Structure formats: structure tokens, C-alpha cells
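User: quick one, fold this
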Amino acid sequence: MTPAPVLDRSWYELEVADEFTGRSLNDRLWIPSYLPHWSSSAASAARYALRDGFLHLRIEADQPPWYPELDGWTRVSSLQTGVFAGPLGSRIGQHRFREGLVVREAVENRALYTPTYGLFEVRARALQDPNNMVALWMIGYEDQPERSAEICIVEIFGRDVGAGHAAIGMGLHPFGDPAIRDDFTRERVAMDATDFHTYAATWTPDDVAFYVDDRLVKVADQSPDYPMQFMLGIYEFADGPGRRSSLERYPKEFVVDFFRAYRTRL
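Assistant:
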């Protein structure tokens, strides 16, 4: 089926929704840490608040880098819907983002929400800060090493947010999946990305289509065929403490209105 130029939800039924209206994070859906097996649960713990019906993922002034040995001064507050890794000291684990990774903390393998195919969307607002990036992306649960591709639904660097336009990253990365070729682009969209917008993807056995505010922006004519989990987060990049000006205002916040996931109607 050719992806529609305007997103049509009538083909789908709602499977999972988080409107972030509660007092605490839904722990049946989200794990509040970023790839803890490569670092530690403490170092990779997300900083966030639930307030006025929104999720506020935060980078705070005193927040340490999540993995300084292999990822420099990157600071992260991220939620994910699964985690998989091998035993302590092994090289088995999801999202092997660079060479030299070994499991530094044993984790309980959990697949809280790991669909194969569907419609997925988030309504959120980005930052204009050049040191920050916000994203919703999917990675293979990776219980088998080749099940490791990424579907990036939305990735917005603050440096790419301008007056009335933004470059929205979207597409696929293969990582360890030999069946997937790299197809990632930054699409210029007329919008104020610091306002709320809806970013979505439809994932079928044939392709992945990407939408901004229900308008088709990109189609990737390939598709992973295994369970994938979600990663929702804010990142701050710096080479060291000296790059962060004392004039910067913290916390930096990625504000999310909702996350919704749909399965295809039978």
C-alpha cells in the first residue's frame, strides 16, 4: 500500500497511549534510563518531571555525562520501552553504538513494548539551544545481533531550528543489520519547532513513512522485520565543562504532550 500524503489513522487501532497525566511515570511502559548496561543505571538515569499533563525530560546543570569513557561529555535524559544485554563483561547488548563496549552493569532483560509494524507518534516541542538534541527513535530489541536497525521517527538538533523552519532528522540506520541500508536525511520543514507538533511514522513490511503534523515528508522503501523498542529523550553535547557557559539556563527541557502507538486493524 502506497503511503498516504495525509496520515490516515482509520487503518489502525490504538494499542498504547501515554498522555503523561499521572503523578508518576508509567513503569509498565517506560524504563527511565539510557542503555544502562553499557554504563550504569545511576549514570544513565533520566531526569524528568510530570507536570500539567506533560512530560518534561530535563538536562540539569549538575547532571554528569552518561558514559564519559566512550561518549565524552554527552548528557542524556531518556526513556526506553525495553532493555536487553548479556552477562556482566560480555559484548552482548542492544545498540552497540561504537567499538569497545562491554556490559558494565547486569540488567534484567525486559520487553515492555516492542512491536513489529504499526503507527507511532509523539506530540512534543523542541529546543533552539545549539548544544541540545531531542528525539523519538526505535531500535531493535536485539535478542539476536542482526536485529539491530534503527527507525528514527524524529530527531531535532537545536542548531537546526530557525525562524519559521527546522531540519527534521528521519529515516533508517542499519547498525548491525545487513538487510538494511542507511537512509537518513534531514528534511527542511516550514514550522516553529519550539511549538508543539506531531511527529509520526507508519511501519509496514514494505516501507516506513514519516509524517510531520500528519503530512507525508519522507518514505523509506525498506523495513526491519523484527521487534523494536522506543527511545524518547533529550541530549546535550559538549567536549567538557568549559563549553557550557555560566550564562546558560538550566534545566534544558524536552516537553512531550503524548506518545501513542497503534496496530493495524485486522
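User: anything notable?
Assistant: Residues 11-264 form a domain with the Jelly Rolls fold (CATH 2.60.120.200).
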